[in-house]
Design brief:
This protein is an alpha+beta fold. Strands 2-1-5-4-3 form a 5-stranded antiparallel β-sheet. Strands 7-9-10-12-11 form a 5-stranded mixed β-sheet. A two-stranded antiparallel ribbon has the order 6-8. The chain contains 13 helices and 12 strands.
Length: 432
């Protein structure tokens, strides 16, 4: 039974007794009867005022409780002129102000945190209590090359490629380095936070590619510049002296002149090769910013094929074209991109050796070009080092071609990969 009903029940009993007593003395004691009637009337008035005084706070408390349950912190009460009631109303209004301010503050902080996560260049994976991906930001989608719809619900250990094994071995005390296609390098961190009293994990993916490339360049740029300067100065003087020695050939015996001239020509040729060798290295540190202009990518590909046509015919390598039906126009530096395509296609032919095929495909949505070859595949340890400066699998290779290609494509802000395909081919893919 509620307090309201209990109060009404007690009031009815008391006033019923007063009415019975008044009825008993109505005929025997008129003055007492009048007094009892007055007392009964006064009691009814006081009871009504007490009822309103008791019930009103209960109604306010019930309304306030319902508002809090509905998380409506805008409902406030005005003082009613009763000291105890006004104290209760003041406490309630102060509590609502504090709750509303705290709610607004938490909402603003939550919105700020969500905005920071979405705008962060670091990838963020929020995991559920069971360890499945529950939240992902745009940077993580780009790094993992999958959309949020594809990632949500997966376990990090089941992600494709090198990501799965790396994230499966990830611990909270030791970051994991992930290297993709010999170029993109990432560092993965794992940590925990409290959600509703329980711990949840999140993973932060940080891209290190640009920083590592910058450190590489800083490491070898000064050395290459110094070597190129000293060698070119020496080669220029030596070749000048060697050229002057040609004037002494007629003074030799006729039988000695051919050997003398041949020795000079060989020396000059080797010096020239050495100068070109150093010039190739110097190109890595003197690559100018690209001069972007609207360029027909299909025409660049055809030009590259014409430059390599004689070598392809000698090696019996066939080119297959699967170009997009419409023009593929991109804002690029045509000279630099042509050099990159030439390096890619030349490496493809050298990887095949003889009697092979090269496929050239382009797409418009998304804008990309793919150059595949059916030569021997790439070993995993080789694939990770392909874009490392001065690394080469060729006996006389300098390790410059792919490094220069890498720098050109990075300056164009192009994403690219060199990976074996399920069909056994090796594909160099460029997203323009």
């Amino acid at each position: 039974m509620s307090l309201r009903l209990q109060f009404i029940f007690v009031v009815v009993i008391i006033h019923g007794v007063l009415i019975v007593l008044a009825a008993q003395v109505r005929t025997t004691n008129a003055p007492l009867f009048v007094g009892l009637e007055a007392l009964l009337l006064l009691s009814l008035v006081l009871t009504w005022r007490l009822y309103r005084g008791f019930v009103r706070p209960f109604q306010l408390i019930a309304a306030g409780t319902e508002a809090i349950r509905a998380q409506d912190f805008s409902l406030k009460f005005v003082p009613v002129g009763q000291r105890d009631m006004d104290q209760l109303i003041a406490v309630y209004n102060h509590m609502l102000d504090a709750l509303r301010q705290e709610r607004v503050t938490q909402h603003e902080k939550s919105h700020l945190l969500e905005s920071l996560i979405r705008a962060s260049p670091a990838g963020v994976l929020l995991l559920s209590f069971e360890g499945h991906i529950e939240g992902v930001n745009p940077a993580a989608e780009r790094m993992l090359a999958q959309t949020a719809a594809q990632l949500l619900g997966q376990q990090p250990a089941h992600l494709p490629g090198d990501w799965g094994p790396a994230l499966a071995a990830l611990s909270e005390t030791q970051p994991q380095v992930v290297q993709l296609s010999g170029l993109q390098t990432y560092r993965a961190h794992s940590s925990r936070f409290i959600d509703r009293g329980f711990t949840r994990r999140f993973i932060v993916l940080e891209e290190l590619t640009q920083d590592l490339i910058r450190q590489e360049k800083q490491a070898y740029e000064k050395l290459i510049r110094m070597m190129a300067h000293e060698i070119n100065n020496s080669i220029g003087a030596i070749n000048s002296i060697l050229q002057s020695f040609h004037h002494y050939a007629p003074q030799l015996q006729p039988q000695d002149q051919p050997d003398f001239t041949e020795a000079l020509d060989v020396s000059i040729s080797r010096n020239t090769h050495l100068a070109n060798f150093m010039a190739n290295f110097a190109t890595l540190v003197r690559l100018p910013p690209p001069r972007l202009q609207s360029t027909d990518v299909h025409e660049l590909l055809r030009t590259t094929a014409r430059l390599l046509q004689v070598q392809a015919e000698r090696r019996r390598i066939r080119w297959h074209w699967e170009l997009a039906p419409a023009l593929l126009v991109a804002e690029v530096d045509p000279v630099q991109l042509e050099q990159a395509l030439l390096n890619i296609c030349k490496n493809a032919q050298e990887a095949i050796g003889e009697d092979g095929n090269i496929w050239v495909r382009t797409h418009q949505e998304p804008a990309q070009l793919i150059i595949e070859n059916d030569g021997p595949g790439l070993a995993p340890e080789v694939q990770r080092r392909l874009f490392t400066p001065f690394f080469s699998t060729k006996r006389d290779g300098q390790g410059i071609g792919l490094t220069l290609t890498r720098d050109i494509l990075l300056q164009h802000h192009c994403r690219f990969s060199l990976e074996p395909q399920p069909n056994g081919r090796t594909a160099f893919t460029i997203w323009l």
